[in-house]
Structures are given as structure tokens and as C-alpha cells.
């Protein structure tokens, strides 16, 4: 991020001083190449962030819906168990939001399927407790969606890894352009226009923006 900020600062420097360099085709060409590198880095970064966030959000929504459905069906099972004195059913229905939410992915899918398998044979009896066949079927279809989402996320992560490699290539390209082309081209301005050259070198400096943020001073020690 700090390297990218530096590249943008250099681009801004050349934009502000466009009139100074417009008569030098070599510098103008290199400036345009830098702009393309910055644009590519920005595009890859945004696509990378959007893909990962979208897939993770979809999976989280599916899990949330599954938990709601499982608790509804389990509630009906628990009520039916109390009405019939079915201890085994009562134990199978004993689940909370916290239990489901904290489970590892494998345990979560096993539990959802267990609730579905238990509820399916007594679907008609659960209707009086507000549990419909659609509620029960929803657990089966929902858990299938949830499990198929995992490969989708792994696929996104694989693409993200490729994108990260692409970003490194672009950063190397940008740094090479600055170090081996623009820096030497700007060197004559150290004598021709020292102020301008100093501004360029300031733009070239890599600054840790996080480290320069204002820190909240600690409270004074009590005597």
C-alpha cells in the first residue's frame, strides 16, 4: 500500500507539473506508462477485494438462513418430544443458536443433516407445532448450497492468489520504471531546477502512512 501511494504521489507530481515536461517526449512516454501501471494495480486490487467479499457474504447469508431454519424445526421437534415423552427426540432437538454458530463447518453440516433426517419421518406430526414440510426440505437444500459454496470460495482464493502474483508483477514493473527510467531522466533537473527535483524526490519517498497517523497521548500518571 505504501508503494502504491508513492506511485500515485509521483503521478500527481507529474500531473501538477505537466507543462514543464510536455516538451520532452521521453518523459511523457514514461509518465503514461506509469499511469497504466497504476491503473492496472488499482483494477486488480478492486476485483480481488470484490470477489472475495461477495463469495464470503453469500456463504454467511446461507449459514444464517440455515441456522434460523434449523432452530425452527428443532423447536417443533422439542415440543413434539415433550408431548410424546420421546427422550431420544428431545436430545436430538437440543440445539441453540450459539451451538450452531460456533461449530466448525463440517460439524455444522452434520448437525443440520441430522436435524433434517430426524424431522423428515415425523413431518406430519410437526405441522401442529408450526413446522411445515417446506421448512424441513429447506434444511436439505440449504445445506447443499452451503457445502457447494466452499469450493466456490476456494476457487476465488485460487484466483486471488493469481491476482496477488499479478500485482507483484505490476509493482515490479512500476518500481523498475521509476528506478531505471524516470529517476535518471529527472536527475538533470537537480541542477536545472533544484526545487522541482526536490519535489520529485519527496514524491518518490515511501512513507508509512499508518505510522504517521496522530497517536492519542497516554493519560497522565497519577501521583
Explain how this protein is built.
- This protein has about 220 residues and is mostly helical.
- The chain has one domain (about 1-205).
- The protein contains 10 helices and no strands.
- It has helices at about 1-15, 20, 25-85, 85-95, 95-100, 105-120, 125, 135-185, 190, 195-205.
- Helix 1 (about 1-15) crosses helix 3 (about 25-85), helix 3 (about 25-85) runs antiparallel to helix 4 (about 85-95) and helix 6 (about 105-120) packs antiparallel against helix 8 (about 135-185).
- The longest helix has about 60 residues, at about 25-85.
- Mean pLDDT is about 85; it is low at about 210-223.
What's this entry about, in short?
With 223 residues, the chain is mostly helical. 81% of the residues lie in helices and 0% in strands. It has one domain.
What does the radius of gyration come to?
30 Å
| Count of structural domains | 1
Instruction: Please work out how many helical segments DSSP would assign.
Output: 10
Report the average pLDDT across residues. Answer: 86
Q: What share of the residues lie within helices?
A: over 70%
DSSP, total strands: 0
The fraction of residues assigned to DSSP E strands is under 5%
Largest sheet: none
The helix/strand order is HHHHHHHHHH
Amino acid at each position: 500500500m505504501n508503494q502504491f501511494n508513492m506511485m500515485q504521489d509521483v503521478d500527481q507530481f507529474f500531473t501538477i507539473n505537466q507543462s514543464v515536461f510536455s516538451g520532452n517526449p521521453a518523459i511523457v512516454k514514461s509518465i503514461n506508462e506509469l499511469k497504466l501501471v497504476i491503473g492496472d494495480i488499482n483494477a486488480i486490487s478492486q476485483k480481488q477485494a470484490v470477489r472475495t467479499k461477495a463469495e464470503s457474504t453469500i456463504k454467511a447469508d446461507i449459514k444464517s438462513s440455515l441456522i434460523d431454519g434449523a432452530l425452527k424445526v428443532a423447536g417443533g421437534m422439542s415440543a413434539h418430544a415433550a408431548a410424546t415423552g420421546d427422550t431420544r427426540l428431545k436430545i436430538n432437538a437440543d440445539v441453540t443458536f450459539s451451538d450452531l454458530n460456533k461449530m466448525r463447518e463440517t460439524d455444522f453440516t452434520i448437525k443440520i443433516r441430522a436435524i433434517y433426517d430426524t424431522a423428515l419421518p415425523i413431518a406430519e406430526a410437526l405441522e401442529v407445532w408450526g413446522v411445515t414440510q417446506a421448512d424441513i426440505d429447506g434444511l436439505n437444500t440449504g445445506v447443499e448450497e452451503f457445502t457447494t459454496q466452499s469450493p466456490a470460495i476456494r476457487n476465488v482464493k485460487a484466483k486471488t492468489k493469481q491476482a496477488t502474483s499479478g500485482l507483484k508483477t505490476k509493482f515490479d514493473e512500476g518500481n523498475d520504471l521509476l528506478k531505471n527510467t524516470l529517476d535518471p531522466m529527472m536527475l538533470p533537473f537537480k541542477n536545472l531546477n533544484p526545487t522541482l527535483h526536490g519535489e520529485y524526490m519527496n514524491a518518490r519517498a515511501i512513507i508509512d502512512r499508518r505510522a504517521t497517523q496522530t497517536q492519542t497521548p497516554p493519560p497522565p500518571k497519577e501521583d
